[in-house]
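Service request form, structural biology core

Requester: graduate student, group of Dr. S.
Request type: structure prediction, single chain
Budget code: on file
Notes: please return the result as structure tokens.

Sequence provided:
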Amino acid sequence: MVSNYFLSFKSWLSKLSFRTGVIVTISCIPFYILSFAQMALPISTAAKGALWVVLFGLAKTTQYGGLTILGVEGVKKIKNFWNKAH
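Core staff response, request fulfilled:
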């Protein structure tokens, strides 16, 4: 049952546009920054740990969700663009 739900969710994500995939993938960067920057806050260690788990989890979720939306062809498109730019 979980497998069917996962496959249908993955199928839905892959139907989204290339632009959406790029935006979702790039949105992982602020979550990564926040997940480590919050360690400088003057709060308890338990709160820091909870914030890190949530923010790092959001970073990974947006990263892999964006890559799922992009798919293999989208990643190739980005690599080609990156190689032409440099």
